[in-house]
Amino acid sequence: MFLLQVVIVVLLVVTAVAAMLLQAASDALQQARRESVVAAQAFASAPGVVQAFRSPDPTAVLQPRAEAVRKRTGVDFIVAMSTEGIRYTYPYPEEIGKKFVGTIEPAREGRTVIEQAGGPPLPAGKGTAVQAVVPVTDSRGTVVGLVSAGITAKNVSRLWMPQLPIIVGAGVVALALATTGTSLVSRRLRRQTRGLAPAELARMYEHHDAVLHAVREGVLITDADGRLVLANDEAQRLLGLPAAAQGRPVRELGLPEPIGRLIMSPEAVTDEVHLAEDRLLAVNKRPTFPHAVEEGSVVTLRDTTELAAVSGRAEVARERLKLLYGAGVRIGTTLDVRRTAQELADVAVPQFADVVTVDLLDSVLQGSEPTAEGWRRLRRVATSGAHWRMPVYRVGEVITYLPGTPQMRTLPEGRSVLEADLRQAHGWQEQDPDRAREALERGLHALVTVPLRARGVPLGVANFYRAGDSPPFEPEDVSFAEELAARAAVALDNARRFTREHAMAVTLQRSLLPRGQPDQDALEVAWRYLPAEAGVGGDWFDVIPLPGARVALAMGDVVGHGLHAAATMGRLRTAVHNFSTLDLPVEEVLGQLDDLVVRMDNEESTGSATEGHEGEGVTGATCLYAIYDPTAGKCTMARAGHPDPVVVGPDGTVTCSDAPASVPLGLGGHPFETAELYLPEGSQLVLYTNGLVEDRTRDLDVGLDALRRALDGAGGRTAEETCQAVIDALKPAHASDDIALLVARTRLFPPSCLAEWDVPSDPAVVPSVRAHCRERLREWGLEDIGFTTELIVSELVTNAIRYGSPPVTVRLLHGRCLICEVSDGSSTSPRLRQATTMDEGGRGLFLVAQFAQRWGTRYTPRGKVIWAEQSADDGATAATGHTPVDVLLEQFGDPAL
């Protein structure tokens, strides 16, 4: 084989060289003819050639030009000659003047002559020259001379010589490839036959044939025409083939129709099961040659009759395990009782039941502990499957089950009840005969009722129905239903416990938040609080009336959720109430809160904290505290890590307060900066927590832009309308954090309800101050409380003149109540004390405390203010009771006075 390949390659190379030579010779001749004509005509047509021929010495003029053109064009010679053929030029000068060798008669007549001829020696060497002779004519067409140009055959050979190495090289490469291919084929044959001789191969074939007929699996081989090529003994037994079946078309063998069609089809088959008489055969089919299906196919047959029943049960078990796994993944994805019940109903349809309903005790839905008293009344909370065409109770209905129903049998006993044939289930039919009759008519025929119990607590029942062509339930199905219900019951109980904890936390938090509007004249307020879906957090707010008709606004946020966050929020809100009672400046209130949070962190991080306490200390808290004074229209605020409030002007413009941002509470040692704003009457101050403007799906900047758009043009709205508009625009579908919103619309104290006097530091002016008060009270229609007001003003002014320092000022504010304020430049606070019988003084503040509803002291940058509040109906009460003197005497309890 190798020698044959060498001979073929050599013949191909020789043939290629010969063909190349012939083609090159022909191409070279044609090219030489063209080049010689072009060179001769170019020289003959060159300027000055005609004059050179007519000159006395043509050789002197034409010889240099002819040699230059010859070298430049690559021809072997250019000869200029007379019309008689005498050379004027030649590469060798000694040949000049001799007769030209070639045909010149046609050229003398004005035609071009191309021919092959020999001649004198040339620089290119000897050889046959291809030469062209052209005439040189003057302007009148007279032939004045001849020009011949030519190329020798040796010069032409350069055109085909470069191709010869390529052809020879290609032959060598082809020979090398043939040698390599022969070697590879030889090695593969040796590898596939493992170096076996023909006798050994024959013996191996015999062994393979014996094994083919001995295996317990039928083997059929067919060709492209559908003829049976081979059938082993097991195939003949399984299919009942005749002895002379080989070589016959498959369609003539009398095979079962499905198997015959499968063998004749071109498609591959894997483990298809077909019935052949009383056998179940697993059939596999593959082509004999993977890349040439038309060559035939191989079919294997395996008897699976004995494994059919076992494999069927295994498949059912596998599907059940898969369903249980899906139930573990799909049930309990949330901590919502109704959603968990619906997940149980959905996961069982249609793989296990056609209709599934879930009934739970109302106490489970409310999160409380179920009791036996409520077992008969269950609420339908979930349905799935073909319930839309079955007369079953709808979601939300309360069902009172009779004692004989499967549901009431399964709850007390704690075991499942199987009704394989609902036509015989009298207890189920007695519950609602009309509904039961219609359900049976529509194909409902089997029921498994399973109790939903977790940690020994009954939660409800799950009802699995089958309808139509579905097989009835079997005892094995009951076990599976119980396993499915047990997994769901744990998730339901977790959701129930979360519902209880969530309700407790919400109740606790709402109890710690304001329940109603406090009595005050400075602001029109409205608020909203929305707890998170996953659990309450630590958002809180407050509206606290302060002395002097002022109002404090507070809003804070404790990081985290659950009871711990709610309890921490309650402690902070209580602390703000206490600090506001002291009438501290806003920055001092935040400073006191900061110290409180630090102490709370230290307490909860010590070893005395209970193990497993929810949260380790206060992980973060923010707060905003503001005081609004309606007499001046000023609002002073400070914020500790809290979002900046938004101000809506009376004209609807929306701006930020630009209050300085300080660090959150609990870091300790950081000062809190304040900001003072002037709010015209009708302005709205909007306070909020970050849950309103920020969540997992919305950035803070996007939320703030949405808040500004919601507040745009809200200048003419009431506080309640603004509050609702903001909630409608920004409330998320599923809140992941608490939302607290407080809108305060400002009012200014009217000048007609305010009176103020400067008092000289002279006790003699006290009667005139009382007279001024009496006159102003008469204008306000408060004569009934005139006596007590004069007494209070007299005592406070006297104390300010005697113990304080100038300037002394008296101010009366008439709003919901009458407020009397006396300010002086001293920072010393008066103290209420019990005077003895022999004391000459010490009873002034005692009298003020007795006649005023509230009184107190607050400090200002210029001193202090002593204030007292009276209700407008105090005068009527005093008139119907004791006189002020009687009251005073009764307080001291000394009948001798």
TrEMBL record:
Ordered alphabetically, the record's keywords are: ATP-binding, Cell membrane, Hydrolase, Kinase, Membrane, Nucleotide-binding, Phosphoprotein, Transferase, Transmembrane, Transmembrane helix, Two-component regulatory system
UniProt-listed CDD domains: HATPase_RsbW-like, PAS
Q: Which biological processes are named by the entry's GO terms?
A: phosphorelay signal transduction system; regulation of DNA-templated transcription
Return the GO cellular component terms, semicolon-separated. Answer: plasma membrane
Q: Output the superkingdom of the source species.
A: Bacteria
Keyword Kinase appears in the UniProt entry:
yes
A GO molecular function term, named singly, is:
kinase activity
Subcellular location, record wording:
Cell membrane
**TM regions (residue ranges):** 164-185
Q: Which Pfam families match?
A: GAF_2 (PF13185), HATPase_c_2 (PF13581), PAS (PF00989), sCache_3_2 (PF17203), SpoIIE (PF07228)
User: Topologically, how does it sit relative to the membrane?
Assistant: Multi-pass membrane protein
Domain PAS span(s) in chain numbering: 204-241
Keyword Hydrolase among UniProt keywords: yes
Q: What is this protein called?
A: Histidine kinase
Native organism: Streptomyces aurantiogriseus
